[in-house]
Amino acid sequence: MLHCANTLGDMTVLERMKWQEEEAFCSGFSSVFCSSSSSSSSLHVHDSIMLAAESGSALAEVVAQANVQAHAQAHVSPSISRTFSCPPTLVEPDPKPKPKPKPKPKPTDSSIGIKKRKPDNPKFVAENDSSKDKRIKVGADDGESKITGHPNREEEDTKQNSKVSDYIHVRARRGQATDSHSLAERVRREKISERMKYLQDLVPGCNKITGKAGMLDEIINYVQSLQRQVEFLSMKLAAVNPRLDFSVDDLFHKEVVPACSVNFPNMGVPSDITNYLQFNLPQQQQIASYGGLVTGINPSDMGLRRTISAPVSMPETYLHSSSCFTQTLPSSTWEGDFQNICNFDFDQARSPSFPSQFFSGLVEAGNLKMEM
Amino acid sequence: MASFDSSDSETLREQSNHKKRRKIGHHTAADHNSAAAAVPWRSDAEQRIYSRRLVEALRRTPLSPARPRAAGQVRETADRVLAVAARGRTRWSRAILARRRKLWTHHEKAKKAPRNGLKRTTERTNRLPAVQKKTRVLSRLVPGCQKISFPNLLEEAMDYISALEMQVRAMSAIAELLSAAEPRRPESPAAR
């Protein structure tokens, strides 16, 4: 980082001025880029650059701008593509100026579109054999059709990743049509095949299936099965829903049992019970519906029966779990268990008779509803 | 919101179809974005965040007295939380969030149904490209993807599948924890 500044300082003013046209941008950015990675030294570099470029006010401006804009990804990204090749240029400025003009014509090239770029780029003339030469893509992967045979390949790639150009540069492969239509077709086809490959990885059991129709079948089946699973799970969750209120903390802290034992001694405040009374009375109409639910959903029946004792033993949860009580009314075993546990809970209670009276009343109400 | 987005992208697509040179830059940018966005669905952190948000949302939703609807409510809540987790980058997530606002205006559906029926019958008799039929089915499965191009549909399906997988994992974990959290009888504390 600091060595950048040193080399800048070593260069003559003339050389620096030459740079300013094209490379200065790059070098300034590169120095800033180097420095921006360690934010503490950025200021130092900046200052040293300022000092070094006495007459290069433009350079300083560039650097200042770069410093300001270093955080904006959009500005840095086009320059980053240049910075990868820039650090060597700082050490050896002489051979580099020739390749350097290439980044500049790029923006103009990008506006041309999907065509063979040979007539536009003089740099390709040296590489191409004939005017109608269809070159094998240089360094292109199988799946990547968008790389052009540019000498500074990494710059081209990063440049295309940035959103400067709206068009994709496509090179016709050897032995293929060079029509713009077919080129566009090929791009589209390759996009589709690329995504199909991704999907093949996602959807299990698609390795042996080739062809769009089969793949689509598999994808459709998989999406449908996933959606059905979500439906089933949501039904299950809806059945277990009342437990959410007090078991949320338990879920994430996984302290199911200790929570139960902790709350146990704290119970017995009459106010809680009176609150429970008020809370519960309006909800009696829910009893029947919950009862219907319990009989309707078989798989969750067992789960519900097992949930009986849990809410009962936690007096604070009485406030929340009234609906849970009502859910489990129909089962006769519940009543037995409930009264046992009720007695057990309220053994030490101030007013043991009071809640039991209330609960029995609740049970009667529930029975009435059930008979209806 | 979703309608604006779709109209913008559709006009763009129309333009591109008219011209010989397509503006594919948008799609490739979207491809890179969504390809990158598809990965976070698999992370544990994302699943935990989703689970927490889902549980909170479920606590807040009022349980309807009529039980058959409760499962639907849970499903909708889960989908909405999932769509929020998608951070609005994908079309299906925006469509899910917009679903709620529209409150299922049945008029739109009624209007479109006969038109589509006519089109479908004529198209079926004329040509049966299996791919197109399946594309249509898939576009109906993925929310909000009725009229988008095939490659974009594939992209949306990709993201939707990863999101659904995460949703299933999270919901099954929650359901399991909830159902397993009950044995608090003093005699059997070791269930967890």
Automatic annotation (TrEMBL), chain A:
Ranges for domain BHLH = 176-226
Spell out the subcellular localization from the entry.
Answer: Nucleus
* Database matches in SMART domains: HLH
Q: Region (Disordered) spans which residues?
A: 75-165
The main location is nucleus
The record's annotation in CDD domains points to: bHLH_AtBPE_like
GO BP terms: regulation of DNA-templated transcription
Name of the featured protein:
BHLH domain-containing protein
Q: Which organism is it from?
A: Flemingia macrophylla
Automatic annotation (TrEMBL), chain B:
**CDD domains assigned:** bHLH_AtIBH1_like
Top-rank taxon, per record: Eukaryota
**One Gene Ontology MF term:** transcription cis-regulatory region binding
In residue numbers, the region (Disordered) covers 1-41
- Give the matching InterPro entries: bHLH_AtIBH1-like, HLH_DNA-bd_sf, IBH1-like, IBH1_N
| Cellular component annotations (GO), alphabetically ordered | nucleus
The UniProt record lists the IBH1-like N-terminal domain at 45-102
Keywords from the named record:
Nucleus, Transcription, Transcription regulation
Pfam families, per database record: IBH1_N (PF26576)
Protein location: Nucleus
Q: Which PANTHER family match?
A: TRANSCRIPTION FACTOR BHLH150, TRANSCRIPTION FACTOR IBH1-LIKE 1
**The protein's name in its UniProt record:** IBH1-like N-terminal domain-containing protein
Which species? Flemingia macrophylla
Q: What is the lineage of its organism?
A: Eukaryota, Viridiplantae, Streptophyta, Embryophyta, Tracheophyta
